[in-house]
Request: fold
Amino acid sequence: MRILTWAVWLAVFLLLLAFAAKNADPVTLRFYFDFAAPAPLVLWLAAFFAFGALFGVAALLATVLRQRRELSVLRKQAPPIEPAPPPA
Reply:
């Protein structure tokens, strides 16, 4: 199973490396007020992917923290669990 996992990760890495090599052409991203930022296409794609991932984590952070707080309150309110008697 460990070899299969490494093989999958290696295949994904090689596919992404080939994608980056094919998309190394410079692209100019134009903003407002005549501001333009030239960079390789793969750099822009990676930057926007990372920004989206960070935005998704930030969007879920409030929900996760609220649920953790609620769980800690519920654990304090719950009665202690007695261990089950051993089977005879």
Summary: Residues 41-76 form one domain.
